[in-house]
């Protein structure tokens, strides 16, 4: 199999785009006729029509509607759908609606950490209480209100915390591998599996063009009688993997999708089990309450059991080899479609 990497602005160590992890499959004769293209900005000068062409992209379903101009990326998606034999998609809803193949994330977990040795992961000192990674300008930019991540940050900022915020040039963890080391040093990782950043224009475009796409209001914070909510759709996030691999206890925003049937279920439930592998929080008040509860009783063996369980499930069930064997090798047997 030959792999082509597109979207060159992504850091080479980024696990969502898998820039460093595919060389082990180069000489596998089973997939010698497969060309795997990673990213959405395809350089078609590298496209070989005689090969089984497989597309994998890390931005579903928001690629269909997001952008300063709503739907500005759709022409690229249409071209990929017209030219590629197969599209692997980690988002169940858009995969089903668009005729793609649902394939969960698969990571080469050994490449996640930088200075921490995996053999010593249990010995890493947990000197940080709360870790969070995300993107927020921490200002009123989301339709004249702070975004959901801003509110989550307000809930953790009074704890011993680290927020790796790509929107802040002075934030820690600007290098991706550095942020993973910080995660490994953290007792708790605050995560979510929702796409929060759809503007009103984005949502209107989505509703007008995709009957299968649904937004639900997610309650983020309650201020007296005022309820602050954000419209959301389910989207699996790499930060869930980070916390699990780094053995940081996952505290996941529950949101409106947790009790929905597939394919519109909360994506974390396709990987992990609540109260076995992670803990839900309902809103910002509950986030602060849960953090206090965990920190006050952190030595309780039930938390160690949770982080071990999440770590083992991700490492054993959703590593890169599983993705390759279960979702790519079978495409070589199916052959070309176009």
Q: How many structurally independent domains?
A: 2
Mean of pLDDT:
89
Please report the first level of CATH classification, the CATH class of the largest domain: Alpha Beta
Globally, the shape reads globular
Helix content: 25-40%
Strand content: 15-25%
Please provide a written account of the structure.
With 338 residues, this protein is an alpha/beta fold. It has 2 domains: 2-107 and 319-334; 109-316, Rossmann fold, CATH 3.40.50. It is built from 9 helices and 13 strands. The protein has a 5-stranded parallel β-sheet, sandwiched between helices. It is globular and about 60 Å long.
Write a brief structural summary.
The protein has helices at residues 74-83, 92-98, 148-156, 176-184, 200-209, 238-245, 284-296, 301-317, 320-334, and strands spanning 2-5, 34-38, 52-56, 86-89, 101-102, 128-134, 161-165, 186-191, 194-195, 216-223, 226-234, 249-253, 279-281.
């Amino acid at each position: 199999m030959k792999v082509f990497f597109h979207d060159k602005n992504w850091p080479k160590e980024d696990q969502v785009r898998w820039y460093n992890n595919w060389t082990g499959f180069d000489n596998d004769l089973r997939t010698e006729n497969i060309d795997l293209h990673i990213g959405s900005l395809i350089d078609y000068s590298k496209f070989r029509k005689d090969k089984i062409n497989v597309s994998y992209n890390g931005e579903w379903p928001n690629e269909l509607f997001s952008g300063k101009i709503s739907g500005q990326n759709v022409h690229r998606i249409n071209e990929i759908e017209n030219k590629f034999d197969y599209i692997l998609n980690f988002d169940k809803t858009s995969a089903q609606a668009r005729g793609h193949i649902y394939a969960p994330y698969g990571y080469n977990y050994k490449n996640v950490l930088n200075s921490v040795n995996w053999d010593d992961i249990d010995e890493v000192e947990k000197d940080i209480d709360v870790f969070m990674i995300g993107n927020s300008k921490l200002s009123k930019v989301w339709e004249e209100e702070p975004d959901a991540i801003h509110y989550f940050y307000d809930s953790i900022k009074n704890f011993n915390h680290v927020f790796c915020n790509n929107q802040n040039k002075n934030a820690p963890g600007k290098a991706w591998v550095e942020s993973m080391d910080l995660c490994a040093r953290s007792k708790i990782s605050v995560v979510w599996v929702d796409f929060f950043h759809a503007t009103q224009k984005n949502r209107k475009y989505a509703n007008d063009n995709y009957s299968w796409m649904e937004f639900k209001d997610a309650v983020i914070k309650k201020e007296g009688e005022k309820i602050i909510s954000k419209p959301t759709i389910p989207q699996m996030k790499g930060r869930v993997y980070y916390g699990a691999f780094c053995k940081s206890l996952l505290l996941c925003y529950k949101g409106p999708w947790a009790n929905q049937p597939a394919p519109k279920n909360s994506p974390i439930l396709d990987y992990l089990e609540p109260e076995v592998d992670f803990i839900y929080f309902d809103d910002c008040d509950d986030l602060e309450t849960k953090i206090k509860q965990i920190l006050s009783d952190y030595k309780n063996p039930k938390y160690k059991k949770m982080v071990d369980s999440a770590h083992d499930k991700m490492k054993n069930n959703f590593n890169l080899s599983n993705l390759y064997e279960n979702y790519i090798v079978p495409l070589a047997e199916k052959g070309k479609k176009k």
